[in-house]
Amino acid sequence: MSAKDFKQSVRTTPEGFHFIFNKIKEHHVFKNKSNHKQLPISHQLALTLERLGTNGNGASVGRFARSFGISEGSVVHCSRRVIKAINALEEKYIKWPDMDRCRKISQVMAQEGFEGCIGFIDGTTFPIYQNPGFDGEIYFDRKKNYSLNAQIVCDCDKVITCFMAGWPGSCADGSLYKEMAIYQHSHEFFESAYPLSHMLIPSFKAPTANKQINKELNYCISQARVCNEHTIGILKDAWEDLALEEQLLPQD
């Protein structure tokens, strides 16, 4: 398989695949305690990455069972194992920048007129495949989809430094921001959906946004924080099925 075909299938390069494999291969979830032998970890990883990179019927259990020549139950178990192992890496790779990194980000943002800014926050939604059976109406978002809300913070290099996900899609970004750990820390972020505070500067809303000076500030903010939109776009383009059906989620 060519490198191009490989990346199209599992959404990463061969080098990226081996990097992930080496990081998760020692996780206890792959230590078999039953008489039923697991698939090789590399196969489980490939299966899961391909599922995460497709959506709709393309990510169905049946299709992957036929493609890999395994049972539908094995598809589910493989997916859960890999997701659990990858989630265990969260604290190592998604972390708040240290002081040295904060200074470097601030220096970059100073060139755009926002010295002291070390990140941008925005909310997005990930559709779920059906109306939840319990309190389903609160998952119905403004785009008329059933979804989960995610608040994502990134830096100027499109590196995700903090996130919170899992709240119903109908929840307002400003309300969810107050539920995040970073709400208690003094840093600056920009988005008009969020309340002004000592650590966050939102863009102006109408009618005050109609004043010329406020228009100019909003323009500068939108130019600076477009990297957050790009970050979310990259995430969704690479992993089409981030809101997979419940059976794919890891369970204890």
From TrEMBL:
<dbReference type="InterPro" id="IPR027806">
    <property type="entry name" value="HARBI1_dom"/>
</dbReference>
<dbReference type="InterPro" id="IPR045249">
    <property type="entry name" value="HARBI1-like"/>
</dbReference>
<dbReference type="GO" id="GO:0046872">
    <property type="term" value="F:metal ion binding"/>
</dbReference>
<keyword id="KW-0378">Hydrolase</keyword>
<comment type="similarity">
    <text>Belongs to the HARBI1 family.</text>
</comment>
<keyword id="KW-0540">Nuclease</keyword>
<protein>
    <recommendedName>
        <fullName>DDE Tnp4 domain-containing protein</fullName>
    </recommendedName>
</protein>
<dbReference type="GO" id="GO:0005634">
    <property type="term" value="C:nucleus"/>
</dbReference>
<dbReference type="Pfam" id="PF13359">
    <property type="entry name" value="DDE_Tnp_4"/>
</dbReference>
<dbReference type="GO" id="GO:0004518">
    <property type="term" value="F:nuclease activity"/>
</dbReference>
<keyword id="KW-0539">Nucleus</keyword>
<feature type="domain" description="DDE Tnp4">
    <location>
        <begin position="121"/>
        <end position="242"/>
    </location>
</feature>
<dbReference type="GO" id="GO:0016787">
    <property type="term" value="F:hydrolase activity"/>
</dbReference>
<keyword id="KW-0479">Metal-binding</keyword>
